[in-house]
Design brief:
With 94 residues, the chain is an alpha+beta fold. It is 18% helix and 23% strand.
Length: 94
């Protein structure tokens, strides 16, 4: 916390059906204020239909040292890679 303000990560959705994407961070004392700051900063840059704010400390992520042991098991399962799938002609948003 900096001056009593928590750091919040901001995710926006530009169109219904599209995924939310991380666009940046804001500082706020509570969730409603974080949403308002996120709207003021990130919704003016283009079309936005939804905003998520998440306290940074609530995000649990892998560490750089996890690169090998954490992700290696997928290498032995080639069916998990999209190389074998063809996207039908005309399909969008994949």
């Amino acid at each position: 916390m900096e001056n009593g303000l928590r750091l919040w990560e901001v995710f926006v959705q530009s169109r219904t059906g599209k995924p939310h994407e991380h666009v940046g961070s804001v500082r706020a004392s509570h969730a409603e204020m974080a949403l308002q700051h996120a709207r003021d900063v990130y919704a003016r840059r283009g079309p936005v239909v939804s905003i998520w704010v998440v306290p940074t400390e609530a995000i649990y992520a892998t560490q750089p040292g996890d690169e090998g042991p954490f992700f290696d098991p997928a290498d032995t399962k080639p069916y998990r890679h999209p190389l074998f799938y063809k996207v039908p002609h005309g399909v969008k948003n994949i």
